[in-house]
Design goal:
The complex is a heterodimer of chains A (326) and B (719).
Chain A lengths: L3 E3 L6 E6 L5 E6 L5 E4 L5 E4 L7 E6 L5 E6 L3 E6 L5 E6 L4 E6 L5 E6 L8 E6 L11 E6 L5 E6 L5 E6 L4 E5 L5 E4 L10 E6 L5 E6 L3 E6 L5 E6 L4 E6 L5 E6 L11 H4 L3 E5 L5 E5 L6 E6 L5 E6 L4 E5 L10
Chain B lengths: L8 H10 L27 H6 L12 E5 L6 H15 L5 E7 L12 E6 L2 H11 L3 E3 L2 E2 L1 E4 H8 L31 E6 L2 E8 L4 E9 L6 E3 L6 E5 L2 E6 L5 E7 L5 E4 L5 E8 L9 E8 L5 E8 H5 L15 E3 L6 E6 L2 E6 L11 E2 L5 E4 L5 E6 L9 E7 L4 E8 L2 E8 L5 E9 L6 E9 L7 E5 L7 E6 L5 E6 L6 E9 L5 E8 L6 E4 L5 E6 L6 E6 L4 E7 L5 E4 L5 E6 L8 E6 L4 E6 L3 E6 L9 H9 L1 H47 L1 H7 L34
Antiparallel strand pairs in B: 1-3, 1-6, 2-3, 4-5, 7-8, 7-42, 8-9, 10-11, 11-12, 12-13, 14-15, 15-16, 16-17, 18-19, 19-20, 20-21, 22-23, 23-24, 24-25, 26-27, 27-28, 28-29, 30-31, 31-32, 32-33, 34-35, 35-36, 36-37, 38-39, 39-40, 40-41
The chains are: A mainly beta (326), B alpha+beta (719).
């Protein structure tokens, strides 16, 4: 499996997202420019210029016409995917950490960081069909969790919002009222900051990765802990294979320790685990910094990883991968 | 409220409400209970209170001694006697004014033959008692000196002797029960974070099997006794020794405040504890206290106190402090002797009496290092070169007791020597660093002593390349071979030698040299034959499992950043560990003797791994040989067992997988059902967009679409 190395960012990668068809790959990094690539051969298609800070997260609409990006410049921008023009800018008074389109792409859930005395928030904005009608009003604002909320996504049928972050608790909120419905307890939940959260394709379950060196699989309706994948390093990024019963988990030692040991000690591998048996299947090496972002192509035949080293590595699986027996 | 069981706060609040008391107005601290009444609520720190020893009260006579057996004198000689006594006792301390009182028989006016002396301090009084008890004034007057406080105690001794009550014999715990494990497994102790755990090494199941687990057990470290009978834990207040059949029970406490090091005698008869105290005056040296306890009774056999300098003289310790253990045990498993090095002398003590052998130290001018034979009462000493080469350096072997010099070897232009005993005490290898002619550098070689042969022949061994540095040396346990890592470059060589080659007179010969290895440490299997060549530190944990009988590498492996390696006492398994020396990768791996990685356990904040040692086998060497000859017969049984276990394991594994799979299927069935039910709703959310595939099955078609876009129109007139 020879990866395609995509060098388009000057700073560490933060997020990767495929469109529904799996032909486009969107990447966000701490440089200010989200980039779109051909998911097949890694050719760079274009960039989205306009942010003035690290871009933490993005999402693309089902019809691949709209891109939404959240940035440390305290704004969330809506882009035209094809032309790269800015359609709208939502301004906040603190950095935007995560963005996620609802089913139907009429709503977007945004989280903002605690900043200058403002607490962290989860906000829902309505996306107008015609950008000219777009307003910046929030449909819903949720406050409460302590510290940064690293990720908030829509639950099944847009009825719930699932959030996770620095306080290591996963919460399910009512998307209508903003009431807290469920939260994880100390025993089954993570012990440290939750860095990442990835929904399954049918939104029935999701995977979370945490600095406590584990990734956990949850039922998205009942918030039941289904599986735990034990790692030997802090987890920064997770992804669920849409094709096989595999999950891929990436991370590495904390960035502050990276310079102290060599590459092998850093454990900058993307590790594959069997989703059901929780056994390790294998690893994909290559990055020379912690892995910050992982994404599966919706066809499950390739995946990409983004590292602190500024590279996106695009891997098309060899035929042997599909015949792995556990 | 009488004798109520412990009430919960809510019950109390209810009660208060009922009787109309506002609890918030009550200050609980102001409530005074009738004395002696606890209302049936026992305080949870009561036990601790009772355990405390009642403080000793000063009687005020601690500085008074009684001197008995003085001459009985008449009043004329009174002043003379008093003068003599004053003269004796003013040497040891300051006698208080009017502090000497000699009572007189009022009938005869003669003295009664004793006197009281009051010193300024109790310390002085004690010293006076120690120094003058038994002092011979003349033939018939030998002083009997006692502390005044003791007199009362002696007065209370009952006149009639009553036989001591003999407690019925209580069978002790079976301390070696772990050896009777049916699966013949070995134990090990690990310490990680605040937890100390003891496990069986269940290599068949490829996992550790927990035996004992304790949180916050110890303050500093744990240590097995040399035969594995006990586990010692080290605390602020001293060491505790544990052992027992099924669990670890407290066997003895060995109080020693601020204990830093402990050491067992090889035969498990004694325990040495060591502490060194920061001086209150920074110019003073550290105060060192060493206690030697009898391990079985817990009795303190002897203590040594002094400044740290008293224990660091000799050797190359110097400023770096003491080199532990201070006392080295000799005389084999009987723990007959222990010895320490001092200035120009070796202090050898007998455990029979706990005093110096022949009541004096063994004078050896300028001795810097010594070691005992592991099996015999033989000391090996090293004295360095003196007087600029006029007096050669010397290695000598001395038999104890008697201090008979068995063999001596003079060495010229030597910079340093290191002594290595073979575990059976058959051979002694002395690594010698010689100066080159220019004295600018050194080169190394070995002097090999054959202890058990007549006259102790000595052989000199030089490496093929004399300039190679010797990085490591190790004898094969109980064997006749040794391994040396030598070389100058980044990849040194490893050579193996045998002491048993040639005809009638055995001589040393090289077996083989392995070139350019990433190794800097040697770990022989305790059973011999196999060795792990390890590359620690700079080599990042390279491991090579080598068979010295067949001179072949069995396997190579790597435990990245490995810091510690230890064979289990039977030589079947090897543990490699990364301890807290490194921040990352903490934990341990267990390997088979032939280098197969069996299992790995990651543990954060990993401090210590230690196999539980085993006592020596009770089988005679002949019997052992017989077993190894008929190994096939025995191994059949174990192979069958192994197979059973592996079958059971795979069966277990299959079952577990099936359960997991079934469990998962119930989940996915439920999800599918939801997904179907919600299809309509989803369609609505998507404004009726029909395709409700999961995005993965639908194939998209790649189409080349040529789009032309006019970016800029620019007209230029060309000349």
């Amino acid at each position: 499996m020879r990866p395609i190395l995509m060098k388009g960012h000057e700073r560490p990668l933060t997020f990767l997202k495929y469109n529904r068809e799996g032909d486009l790959l969107f990447s966000c990094a701490k440089d200010h420019t989200p980039t779109v690539w051909f998911a097949d051969d890694g050719e760079r298609l274009g960039t989205y210029r306009g942010h003035n800070g690290a871009v933490w997260c993005c999402d693309v609409s089902r019809d691949s016409t709209r891109l939404v990006t959240g940035s440390a410049d305290q704004s969330v921008k809506l882009w035209d995917v094809q032309t790269g023009t800015q359609l709208y800018t939502f301004n906040f008074n603190s950095p935007a950490r995560s963005v996620d389109f609802s089913v139907g792409d009429k709503l977007v859930v945004i989280t903002t960081d605690p900043f200058m005395g403002n607490p962290s928030t989860i906000q829902v904005k309505r996306i107008a069909r015609d950008p000219a009608d777009q307003t910046s009003d929030s449909v819903l604002t949720i406050k409460g969790p302590q510290g940064r909320i690293n990720r908030a996504v829509w639950g099944p049928l847009n009825k719930t919002i699932i959030s996770a972050g620095e306080d290591s608790i996963i919460r399910i909120w009512d998307a209508e009222t903003g009431n807290l419905l469920k939260e994880t307890d100390k025993e089954s939940g993570h012990q440290k900051t939750i860095s990442s959260l990835c929904m399954s394709a049918d939104k029935s379950h999701f995977l979370t990765g945490s600095a406590d060196k584990s990734a956990k699989l949850w039922d998205s309706r009942s918030l039941t802990l289904l599986k735990t994948y034990q790692m030997d390093r802090p987890v920064n990024a997770v992804a669920i294979s849409p094709l096989l019963d595999h999950v891929v988990i990436g991370g590495g030692q904390e960035a502050v320790n990276v310079t102290m040991t060599d590459r092998r000690a850093g454990k900058f591998e993307a590790k594959f685990y069997h989703k059901i048996l929780q056994d390790e299947i294998g690893g994909v090496k290559g990055h020379f910094g912690p892995i910050n972002a992982l994404a599966f192509n919706p066809d499950g035949r390739s995946f990409s990883s983004g590292g602190e080293d500024g590279y996106v590595r695009l891997h098309h699986f060899d035929p042997e991968y599909f015949s792995i027996r556990m | 409220m009488a004798a109520a069981a412990v009430l919960s706060m809510s019950e109390i609040e209810n009660k208060a409400m009922n009787i109309g008391i506002d609890l918030s107005t009550i200050v609980f601290d102001n409530i005074v209970l009738p004395p002696g009444d606890d209302f049936g609520i026992t305080s949870d720190d009561e036990d601790i209170l009772h355990e405390e020893v009642a403080p000793e009260f000063e009687t005020g006579y601690g500085n008074v001694i009684v001197v008995d057996n003085l001459p009985v004198v008449s009043p004329e000689k009174f002043a003379k006697l008093e003068g003599v006594i004053r003269k004796i006792y003013s040497q040891t301390g300051v006698i208080k004014e009017r502090g000497l009182w000699m009572p007189v028989n009022p009938g005869t006016n003669m003295t009664l033959g004793y006197c009281f002396i009051e010193f300024n301090t109790a310390q002085e009084a004690k010293e006076a008692k120690e120094k003058t008890d038994g002092y011979k004034l003349d033939k018939s007057h030998i002083f009997i000196v006692d502390m005044f406080d003791d007199i009362e105690r002696y007065m209370n001794v009952p006149e009639e002797w009553t036989p001591a009550e003999i407690k019925p014999y209580e069978a002790g715990d079976h301390l070696q029960h772990w050896l009777t494990d049916e699966k013949a497994r070995d134990q090990f102790v690990i310490r990680a974070g605040t937890v100390t755990e003891i496990f069986w090494n269940d290599a068949r199941q490829l996992r550790p099997d927990p035996v004992y687990h304790y949180q916050y057990w110890i303050d500093s470290f744990v240590q097995w006794s040399p035969l594995g009978t006990y586990l010692a834990t080290v605390h602020q207040q001293g060491a505790i020794v544990w052992g027992g059949k099924s669990t670890f029970n407290l066997i003895h406490r060995f109080p020693h405040n601020q204990v830093k090091h402990i050491d067992f005698s090889p035969g498990e008869r004694f325990l040495v504890t060591y502490s060194s105290q920061e001086p209150s005056n920074p110019r003073d040296t550290h105060r060192v206290v060493l206690n030697i306890f009898d391990l079985r009774t817990g009795k303190l056999m002897r203590d040594f106190k002094g400044s740290v300098d008293d224990f660091t003289t000799g050797g190359s310790g110097g400023l770096s402090g003491i080199s532990w253990p201070i006392f080295k045990w000799g005389g084999g498993k009987e723990d007959k002797y222990f010895a320490r090095i001092g200035k120009n002398a070796i202090y050898v003590y007998e455990t029979e009496t706990f005093i110096l052998v022949d009541k004096k130290s063994y004078k050896v001018d300028n001795v810097v290092d010594f070691s005992w034979s592991p099996t015999d009462s033989i000391l090996a000493l090293f004295v360095p070169e003196l007087g600029g080469g006029n007096q050669p350096a010397r290695v000598s072997l001395v038999q104890m007791p008697g201090k008979v010099e068995l063999r001596q070897k003079n060495l010229f232009s030597v910079s340093d020597c290191k002594m290595y005993w073979q575990s059976n005490g058959e051979y002694l290898a002395v690594k010698v660093d010689w100066y080159t002619k220019t004295k600018k550098s050194t080169y190394s070689g070995f002097e090999l002593f054959r202890i058990k042969e007549h006259d102790i022949p000595i052989e000199v061994l030089e490496l093929d390349n004399k300039n190679d540095k010797i990085i490591a040396f190790a004898w094969e346990p109980k064997g006749h071979r040794f391994a040396v890592i030598h070389g100058d470059g980044p990849r040194p060589d490893v050579s193996f030698y045998s002491m048993k080659t040639g005809g009638i007179t055995a001589r040393v010969s090289k077996l083989t040299t392995l070139k350019a290895k990433q190794a800097n440490a040697l770990y022989w299997s305790p059973a011999g034959r196999f060795i792990v060549l390890a590359g620690l530190k700079g080599f990042n944990g390279q491991l090579e499992f080598y068979n010295v009988d067949d001179l072949e590498t069995m396997a190579t492996g790597e435990h990245f950043m490995c810091t510690d390696i230890e064979w289990d006492p039977t030589g079947r398994y090897v543990a490699t560990a990364v301890t807290l020396v490194h921040v990352m990768e903490n934990g341990f791996h267990i390997w088979s003797f032939n280098g197969k990685l069996l299992y790995r356990i990651p543990k954060d904040n990993f401090f210590q791994f230690q196999w539980r040692p085993r006592p020596q086998s009770l089988l005679s060497p002949e019997k052992e040989e017989e077993i190894s000859r008929n190994l096939r017969k025995y191994s059949k049984k174990y192979e069958a067992e192994d197979q059973d276990v592996s079958l059971a394991l795979s069966e277990q594994d299959r079952k577990k997988r099936r359960v997991l799979q079934e469990e998962w299927e119930t989940w996915t069935a439920r999800w599918k059902q939801y997904h179907e039910e919600e299809r309509e709703l989803r369609l609505q959310l998507r404004d009726g967009e029909p395709s409700d595939d999961e995005g993965s099955q639908e194939q998209y078609e790649a189409k080349e679409v040529e789009a032309e876009e006019v970016l800029d129109v620019h007209e230029e007139i060309v000349d």
